[in-house]
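User: I'm curious what two different proteins look like when written out as structure tokens. Can you demonstrate?

Assistant: Sure. I'll show them one after the other, since each token string lines up with its own sequence. Here's the first protein:
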Amino acid sequence: MGRLGYCARVDIADSRPRVAWLVGGHPYDAASLGRLLDSLDAEVSLITWPTAGEMFTPSGVIRLLQDFDVLALYDMPGIRFRPGESPEFVAPSDDIVAAWSALTNRGMPVLGLHHSIASWPTWPGFAEILKGRFHYAPARLRGVSYPDSGYAMNVKQRFDVAMPDHPVCVGLPTSFELTDETYQCPVFDAEVAVLIRTNAPRDDAHHTSAFAAVRRKSDPRWRHSPASDAVAWTHSYGASQVVYLQPGEGPESFDNHWYRMLVNNAVKWLAELQRRRQ
């Protein structure tokens, strides 16, 4: 597995999916993520911001399309956290927006995981790519004003497979348990094929304000409408197929057999779609 920047290791004889796995902008458990990536039947290059930014340039888009079958997002660009203060939001450059347009017009498959749904909060277009957004501060999306999103750590929950015959779900049991973080945020679930649903509480009584947490404060007045129970879905954006998996906080998921199967299935399916196009 390549883990030293943007350097894909391409073996012509290796038919495994080639995955560009982006990280940076949000802390993560590197050891357990490494174990997850090592468990995949794929050739993975771990690419960290700001090096990942080289992919979102005209020449970077060409290299990405040539060297990889799947773009996996476990990153969170566009937000700078300042301890005890409100986060700073950074708009994507024109090159980054143009690169995303080129990638999705060319059909680059995208796998979004966990906190990637909070990326580029000032750019409405990114929320359309993943069909939702986690807000670290109150914001507007599709003309609607939303409070900051909620989160709950270490929630033991049951995942119910909604589409057992879908390639992403093949081999999974009808339901399985997982302990992971839950989100309470806008999800456009009417516009996607929901693969898995959770039985975890979806109301604000069971979640904490993200905006208060990053400022190291509490906000007893915080309220949020109930969240969707969808935690895995797929849809098309432009010519690209997108899969989003909400769980993925750390070892509890990364070391879980069924979660590993879910990620591996998603990678293999997306890569197969891409190779059929070539």
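Here's a second, unrelated protein for contrast:
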Amino acid sequence: MSLCDPNLPVDASANSVLNLPPGVPPLCAFYLYLTSGCNLACRHCWIKPRFINGKPDPQECINPELLFDAVREAKTLGLSSAKLTGGEPLFHPHFRDIARGLSELGIGMNMETNGVLLTPELARFLKNETKIDFISVSLDEDEPQAHDAFRGVKGAFDAALRGLDALKEAGYNNTQVIMSVHKGNIGKIERVVALAAAHGATSVKFNPVTDTGRGRQMTERGETLSIQDLLALEKYVYGELKEKASLKNLILNIPPALRSFQILMETRGCTGDCGVIGILGILGTGEIAMCGIGQTIPSLVYGKLGDSITDIWLNHPKLQALRKELEDTRNYPGICGDCLMASSCRTGCVANNYLEGGGMIWPGKQCQEADELGLFPANRRRSWKKE
């Protein structure tokens, strides 16, 4: 799986309607890591889900009834949406019950999947009987051998394309392809975009492989992108590629401070804020955590299903500390403390920061490297305004 999508909206005005205490934002979304199992063994996965002979561990799957109880309580705190991910969400033995039950509770959903288990019949179920309105499918190469090698299972490429086709046939007109980008496939981006468009996708999101989970081994072997690679990729994606590709909705995860002004305008000021201020993660174990990072960092687990969601959201000391630190943008460490975009970016993915730097409020690796190499834009610094 990839890192979380940025820019989850947080409506601070909802506090008065929800009667939340000062300083406590609405709980906008659950990130549901439905199972710790997966049917693939991807080389880059940041939370390393279990792959056990193609079968998930029954004790590593979210209990539907406990989940529904948590959702009912969380709706009083503002819950309105959920992201279904994993592991592989479709691998949950009661996936349909969960998707149907969340829909009946009025929860809007999006889903990240490797696409392998998507059949025409399942795609019709998703479209016609659930509130899952946006689905992302992983596709990292333009031919079977390379994709299957990266994903760890033969046949994954063909199955993912069949899954995309099934979604299109079922009536989804906004499917996204997510490409995990590294040095081995960066030269194939244009062909992957063309393939995605041919199979009904309307957007492609490029997630650079990170130095976390299984991706750490890729970094140690020099396979992940350098900051120079990333900056060159941004210019290519939003320049040459966007000009000639038939599919124009192209998205690259990169800190906003490293984007050109023109691209910030084109991407409508996309900030890179991971939205952690308004989410809770629920792991396959039933543990309630900051996000999927709880699978590898037990100290970022806040409780478990069956505990009071209200008590966790209002009173857990780790959440209270995180909110306070996020608001204190002037005292962010390193380059973040000197960044004009700190109040919108808020140091990016705090889970990745924790894994790479030891603190949740910590300069993201990309910005830190750019600063050290003299590549951080001078006009994005607070100190630049004083010169």
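A detail about the second structure: Confidence is low (pLDDT under 50) at residues 6-13.
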